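Q: My collaborator sent me two sequences in one message, no labels, and asked for predicted structures for both. Can we handle them in order? The first one she listed is below.
A: Yes, handling them in the order given. First sequence, followed by its structure tokens:
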Amino acid sequence: VVMMTGHGDVHVAVSAMKLGARDFLTKPVPLENIARLAAEFERGEGGDGSATAGVAKGVAAIVGRSPRAGALRDELTRILEATRGLSGNPPSVLVTGESGTGKELVARALHVDGPRANGPFVSVNCAALPGELVEAELFGHERGAFTDARQRREGLFASADGGLLFLDEIGEMPLAAQAKLLRVLEERVIRPVGASQARPVDVWVVAATNRHLADLVAEGRFRGDLMFRLQVLWVDVPPLRERDADIVLLAESFVREFSRLYPGEQRTLSNEARARLVAHRWPGNVRELRNVIERATVLAGSGGEIRASHILLAESSSAPAETLEGMEVAMLRQALDRTNGNVTRAAALLGISRDTMRYRIEKFGLQTK
């Protein structure tokens, strides 16, 4: 279900009857993400980019045999045991870790296995919220509260009432909004912009950041009282380079996932491909590994073995975001080469729409024949 709000925002709600939950994406939402989210729920996946091929959910979805993965599952299990049976709001949880480690997967595990499993799961990237509209996005607004507020609208806290609100990139939230968030966490009420009355809200708040909040506090960019309020419980997600024993296991789960997604038979990893994966440092963590395996699945064709030559890695010291963008460009070029520049066929090969393919071709300035 796609809901357009009064000032152009888009929320996407996908019902998952078996989970009894809803998922929300905040703007901007690429149209292919809508189809992806719906498809993932059809396959029984979590929709966070770190799913384990649609088999496991909750804490069990955290793949790995390494001591760090086991310690992470144990820590989440302890949090869930402590919050089970609580009469009030569970304590806030702060999830830290580098980009691409799977912080949203942790939040989803707390939701699926926790006391709010039957309520909504609402995810928002704080860095993507327009600075002047952060308060209205989070807490809602009344009609006429500001320019373009043509009708009353509930915010993300109200959407998450009875469930879990995941505040990703919390370190990017403006200071003014931080003060309002602190009040909500302490008093459990929200006051929409332009409203005269506050209303109670029952939300489990899980925040995440790849920044050191203590450093931001020292720089005057984050409130110390809010940091302490958020990290009543603290979960640190280890980088993939500290989980060497999990690399091949994760890669195999992604191979199974993408073998179902792309036409053809089940692919397998050759021993040389496995060795190449284990030798890499993975600056982009699990997200980078997932992208590399998706590209390798496409390069391997419709069945057979994924060889070392299919595992294309960025050997430079560039930032993870740049690395991932480079892999996306390489995948688009490969699809165009394999289809002789036919945009429609290349889009079908990559599992995206022709419009999305055309948009990405223009975005990266790629040439078609």
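Q: And the one she listed second?
A: Here it is, processed independently of the first:
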Amino acid sequence: MKIIPVIDLMDGLAVHALRGHRESYRPLRTPLCQDPDPFAVVASYLRLHPFDTFYVADLDALTGRGRQDSLIAALQREFPGRTFWVDAGLPDEPFSALGSSRIPVIGTESMRPEDWHRLGSCPGGWILSLDWRDGSLDGPEIVLQQPQMWPERVVVLTLDRVGSLTGPDWKRLEWVRSLAPNRRLVAAGGIRHEEDLKRLARLGVDAALVASALHSGTLRLDEIFQGT
């Protein structure tokens, strides 16, 4: 099970994401990292474990308040050799122009049906995020009707559980797994501890996006990576 730490960016700072209520997000200050500076947050994650992949949500871009591409590029330069999955809506550049260390995550919340028709015909190099809010898909339903057009990796993101430490959305994950048995699934939202990761692995989930469990210490990496 691959663990991918999450950094949520708003106005140039890392913020504490909670249940998708973005208007109430505040600068991140946790037992792991008291400084909301994004560089300090990544450094704090790396003190826990030499992670090779990070997930960055550009909340300014997702809410139509401008992109933080220069900040994300600076993070890439500061932490070379790492891969950044970046959720910032539809990119302004072709996927091929983003470089190998930045992989675009395109969430359904950022899509219109015509965007899906265009993306579904694209080759690899991007990650689909199925964004669930209040029990429904946030985005065009046609995406769920055409799992054969999904890229290799698919994030199952339940926004109502983000930052909640209430456990993953098991039924949703099982349902998406049944729709696309050959895709590499990534669970996001609510992950608490090692037992959640073990259950996700048994379900056939390939990776997990994690923030609150790392910041609070409920996910003990020393136990997970012992002997690896």
